[in-house]
Design a protein that fits this description.
By secondary structure, the chain is α/β, with parallel strands linked by helices. It has helices spanning 33-42, 59-65, 81-91, 112-121, 168-178, 186-192, 212-225, 267-279, 285-288, 302-314, 337-348, 366-369; strands spanning 4-10, 27-28, 31-32, 49-54, 75-76, 99-104, 127-133, 138-141, 148-152, 158-160, 164-167, 197-201, 228-242, 245-248, 251-254, 257-259, 318-327, 355-360, 373-384. The chain binds magnesium ion (MG).
Length: 387
């Protein structure tokens, strides 16, 4: 047995959320709550596999939300959270990981440091959970639920969070033994089996989205975190040459000419890459991919845009929107516009609603008007954290 797997639970319908669509599939800053929760594990160096446990009826929502993310295929959960966790654990049987993290899909703000702390605690204990000490004074109500019976000593009370970490074999056996009991989290299943559960300091930001107002608060948390707005522009020209197609914004457009250039000459993606690099003050495309370097000869320009988007992500930022304008008399861009938007969205890892592609002619004036080449302009807006 080796490695570490993360199970992300999204089997609930979220009846408290008051919507047909489960809360995990609501968008939070352009990505679903569930995808954000899973991305933290998919991008963590200590986590080898990520699997999401879903409801069968959410499969289409899941597929749409997880496009392009490198995780195991989802598995279907059961009627209760406990059933879903057990079925998720059973589904990892062939991988037989050494350690497993079980996380609530409605907690999108889990971060790498919390995952590190929780896993580290497994070195000295068979189970570990992040939790926060209770700071509010606690009251126990009388049976009428209207008056106070007593004040509760809070000094030993903690609020449990996820991810909770276990030895895979231990927690699988504990879940099998507890099937049918009504236990509210996996640490409780471990306690039920007599395992000692270590407490690890949680994170106040690692909230669970249960109600619509939680989602609104999460949107504000995200907006506060990405408080710096930066704009960049890009411009590129490529000359027509003999050929039978042009690459524009990641789409192969049949044409009676080609475009001349060191890479695939995709002026749209080049201008856009420069716009993103400009927004984050990271030079230009030539600085990252020197035309003198033979490895970029004929290269698909996807790699330039993906690199720029990766630099934004590495700074903890997000691409808020991109806007590309192509200037040429021919080929006609309109029939390819939606495919271009989709290609840019896929390569940059953003929602297509954040991508615009426009086209114009130059009324037969100048070099674009004479059909000698294509011009692309681009603008990108990037949001970055304060730090
Ligand atoms: Mg270029």
């Amino acid at each position: 047995m080796a490695g570490c797997a993360a199970l992300v639970l999204a089997g609930g319908s979220g009846s408290r959320f008051g919507s047909e669509i489960p809360k995990q599939y609501f968008a939070l800053g352009g990505r679903t709550v569930l995808r954000r929760a899973a991305e933290a594990f998919a991008g963590h160096p200590a986590v080898d596999h990520v699997r999401v446990v879903i409801r069968a009826e959410d499969r289409a929502r899941y597929d749409a939300a997880f496009a392009g993310l490198d995780v195991l295929p989802p598995t279907v959960g059961g009627a209760t959270r406990q059933d879903s966790a057990r079925l998720g654990l059973e589904s990892l049987g062939s991988l037989a990981p050494d350690r497993v993290l079980i996380h609530d899909g409605a907690r999108p703000f889990v971060d790498a440091a919390l995952i590190d702390r929780t896993l580290a605690a497994l070195d000295d204990a068979p189970a570990a959970l992040p939790a926060l000490p209770v700071s509010d004074t606690l009251k126990r109500a009388r049976a009428d639920r209207a008056t106070v019976a007593e004040t509760v000593d809070r000094s030993l009370l903690w609020r449990a969070q996820t991810p909770q970490a276990f030895r895979y074999g231990d927690i699988l056996a504990a879940h099998r033994a507890a099937a049918g009991a009504s236990l509210t989290d996996d640490a409780m299943v471990a306690e039920h089996a007599g395992l000692s559960v270590a407490l690890v300091m949680g994170n106040e930001d690692n909230v669970k989205i249960t109600t619509q107002s939680d989602l609104g608060r999460a949107e504000r948390t995200l907006a506060d975190a990405l408080a710096i707005t930066r704009v960049g522009t890009g411009y590129d020209v490529h000359r027509f040459c003999p050929g039978d197609h042009v690459m524009l914004c990641g789409v192969r457009v049949p044409h009676d000419r080609g475009l001349e250039g060191h890479s695939d000459a995709d002026a749209g993606l080049h201008a856009l890459t420069d716009a993103i690099l400009g927004a984050i003050g990271e030079g230009d495309i030539g600085a990252h991919f020197p035309p003198s370097d033979p490895q970029w000869r004929g290269a698909p320009s996807d790699i330039f845009l993906r690199h720029a988007a990766g630099l934004v992500a590495a700074k903890g930022g997000e691409i808020a929107n991109v806007d590309v304008t192509l200037v040429c008399e021919r080929p006609k861009i309109g029939p390819h516009r939606d495919a271009m938007r989709a290609a840019i969205a896929r390569i940059a890892g953003i929602d297509v609603s954040r991508v615009a592609v426009k086209a114009t002619t130059s009324e037969k004036l100048g070099f674009t008007g004479r059909g000698e080449g294509i011009v692309a302009y681009a603008t990108a807006t990037v949001r970055l954290p304060w730090s």
